[in-house]
Design brief:
One of its GO terms (biological process) is maturation of SSU-rRNA. This is BUD22 domain containing protein. The protein is mainly alpha-helical and about 375 residues long. The protein has a domain of about 190 residues. Helix content is about 60%, strand content about 0%. It contains ten helices and no strands. Helix 1 packs across helix 3 and helix 1 packs antiparallel against helix 7.
Length: about 375
């Protein structure tokens, strides 16, 4: 006996596309419309249905193989008595078609009945949209109603007790290994339903807030439109008057200084009122100063090697308190009138080199003539 196909099979052969319908995408900042809400829910529902069908089908296959192996082991058990052997032969002949039926069971039928028990088929957002359309008789709604009817007919029906594969399907669905995945997916379906309810509630709140904001904006345009224009005109008029007043003062001051009258009144006043700049030390200089002051207070001498020295106050004569010279001046200043500067030449008492003495003797004095004088007659 071959596998029994369901009356209206709905198998998922290919995964639905992840691309969103850009035509139903909502505008930025605006509330979700009914079409946008349905598209978002339908996209998540399709992904959930595909994943559920894939995982439940895989688990049903494992349970089916386990049941087939169990039947084969029972067939190969040794018989203890002849009576049992006779009974065993009859049971073996009955077990062979049962194994064939298990091997040929349609796993899609098991998967569809499991998803139906979870209630995932009836959580489809299209069923809600069918009830919300009402009795509209337009052509567009008639077309949608025909599509909804086709979709409703495609939902697999519940198998009855007189179905040939009812016992095998029920054995797989009630197996302890299969019940684990049913519990997991029961939680996931519950989460999906809660998410749909929260999404619809938040959409209603956003739409009501959006409509109230629109009404307030329309009223504010009628009441405050003229007032805002008046404020802008006053602001521009004040700015233009202030700008003209400032330019007139500046030109009068310029002509006064060019003519020579009241010279220096504005400029000197501006210079006196201008704040003087302070040369603030850098971070490293401040740190070196603090370390040097601390070292000096503690009596250590290593502060002199740091990059800071205490300022030296000068006396009336110009000499420093510490007795150091003023390194800033390029020439030494004379504090007293000592007259002309006297230059003293010190005679050297060190012995001279022989070559130096011979050279000096040749260059000093007139040498006397020591030869013979020849006269010509």
């Amino acid at each position: 006996m071959g596998p029994i196909q369901p009356d209206t099979p709905t198998t998922l052969k290919s995964r639905p596309s992840k691309k969103r319908d850009r035509t139903t995408s909502r505008r930025a900042g605006g509330p979700l419309t009914e079409g946008d809400l349905l598209a978002i829910q339908q996209e998540r529902y399709d992904r959930l249905l595909y994943t559920a069908h894939k995982q439940i089908h895989k688990q049903a296959k494992l349970v089916k193989n386990f049941l087939v192996q169990k039947e084969i082991r029972q067939k190969k058990q040794p018989q203890q008595s002849k009576q049992k052997q006779v009974d065993g032969n009859t049971s073996n002949t009955e077990a062979a078609p049962k194994i064939q039926t298990l091997k040929g069971i349609d796993l899609d039928l098991v998967t569809q009945q499991a998803i139906r028990q979870l209630g995932l088929y009836h959580s489809n957002p299209r069923l809600k949209s069918m009830a919300s359309r009402g009795d509209d008789t337009s052509n567009e709604h008639k077309h949608k109603k025909t599509q909804d009817k086709m979709f409703q007919d495609s939902v697999p029906p519940r198998i009855e007790a007189d179905h040939p594969s009812f016992d095998i399907v029920n054995a797989i669905l009630t197996h302890k290994r299969f019940l684990q995945i049913m519990e997991e997916w029961n939680d996931k379906v519950t989460e999906f339903r809660q998410w749909c309810v929260e999404l619809e509630a938040s959409t209603e709140e956003r739409s009501s807030e959006h409509h109230s904001i629109k009404k307030k904006r329309k009223k504010s345009v009628d009441k405050k439109g003229n007032k805002r224009n008046d404020d802008r005109q006053e602001h521009t008029q004040d700015y233009s008057d202030r700008y003209l007043h400032e330019t007139s003062q500046d030109t009068s001051a310029m002509f006064c200084t060019l003519s020579g009258e009241n010279e220096g009144i504005n400029l000197d006043g501006d210079e006196d009122m201008a704040p003087k700049k302070k040369n603030r030390m850098g971070q490293r200089a401040r740190k070196a100063k603090a370390m040097a002051i601390q070292a000096k207070q503690e009596g250590r001498s290593d502060y002199e090697s740091l990059n800071w020295r205490a300022p030296k106050t000068s006396n009336k004569d110009g000499a420093k308190e510490d007795g150091d010279a003023d390194y800033k001046s390029t020439r030494n200043k004379r504090t007293k009138d000592d007259g002309p500067i006297k230059t003293e030449i010190k005679e050297s008492t060190a012995p001279e080199h022989p070559s130096w003495a011979a050279k000096q003797a040749q260059s000093t004095g007139i040498v006397a003539f020591q030869g013979k004088k020849i006269t010509f007659t």
